[in-house]
Amino acid sequence: MAVHNQVQLITYPDSLGGSLQTLRKVLDEHFHDIFKGGIHILPPFPSSGDRGFAPLTYFEIEPAFGSWKDIKAIGAKHDVLLDVMVNHISRQSAYFQDFLKQGRRSPYADLFLTLDKVWEDGQPVQADIDKMFLRRPLPYSTFTIEETGEEEKVWTTFGKTDPSEQIDLDIHSDQVKRLLTEIFENFRNNNVKIVRLDAVGYIIKKLGTSCFFVEPEIYGFLDWIKELADSLDIELLPEVHAHYSIQYKLAEHGFWIYDFILPYRILDTLVNKNAEALKEYLITRPAKQFTMLDCHDGIPVKPDLDGLIDTKAARKLVDTCLERGSNLSLIVSDEHKDADGFDVHQIRCSYYSVLNSDDDAYLAARAIQFFAPGIPQVYYVGLLAGENDEEGVRRTGEGREINRQNFSVGEIEQALGKSAVQRLLALIRFRNEYDAFNGDFRVLQSASHEVRLEWTKEDLRCTLQLDLGTNRTVIDYVEADGTTAQFVV
Q1: Backbone phi, then psi, for 140, in 5-degree steps?
Q2: For this protein, what is the EC number (predicted)?
């Protein structure tokens, strides 16, 4: 299948009305002409942590959210995108629970990355660990096997608890390949059109490396899974937070990539009223990307923008974000911080709040996103111009909850009354329907306090003009009959 060059929605299964069934109703009643590009439903599977990202199984939908019937029904009208956490599965999964009981005698033992698959004697070496890009202080957890009392150390890249809830899979194992094949076949049977390969950068563990996006080994897996997806008419979207050069290599390899640079670039442009770095970036970036401003994590900084930003200027921007209520996710490994100690991994916030809840600035940000070549995604909180959920952070102690609040149907209907939301919906309709976005893109010359972007296709042309002094955003365009018109964003 081909990905539709139209706007997509990102949402949790329970964030817009509490269930998949209500999500479907909300889409039909309020957004039937809006998300023509598709719906990214964040993990709807039974999970033991990380809000869905520690799945017990991919063959069931969490009953509190609904069933596969609901996914299939949404997929009948929208391209559905689901995640596969190719790096790990839940500690509570039937597979790992059987391993905890029987150890190496378990029929599922080979699914998991026990430490003897990394270090021959199964004993971790700190000098090797020091080279790794870590997401927790130690990349493994220790378990006691019920039947034998023996200890087993298993790789666990992610997880806030010890032992971790997220158990790494051994992607070299035939068992893992069989499991992934069955997952993809089930997706195809339930109208899933796009699969995001979550945490795919961490799948190769090789001593002497950072164990992150290890080349060339990672391409062996990516080529294998692409062949599987192609055979089932499913598109793939690898999710890799890494130095931008790695994203560009993925693009050269023919994959869709995420534009994790754009959210920071747009924020920097609007806060500092200077568009030079943004324009330079828009001229050189690959076109085959999914674009976003906000998501369930945060605005990427390191390592995504390593080498692209001055850390002194970045610190100033981060301080502005903190003043506006944001919180930060930081890099764990000293080796992967900047020389001056700059260690910001992501800025966590609602994108509307980080722009000071300024409607014009927020719509300017969306207009730039929609004009940047690629498939635009809008996160549900951003769709409703939601603000920082500070209460959610206090209640849970989890910084990412700042941008993960749920909306009841009543709250959705109330948000639809906001001027910012109505203006955003009008902009999405224009982006979906104006055919020049399927043509050629140019960054036009302009002063440093202006952004001028243009799309042309045959006789159609639309030009975005943004004055950073006032955040006034205007789109001039040519109608099908040749007359000119203007759309004030």
Answers
A1: -145, 160
A2: 2.4.1.7
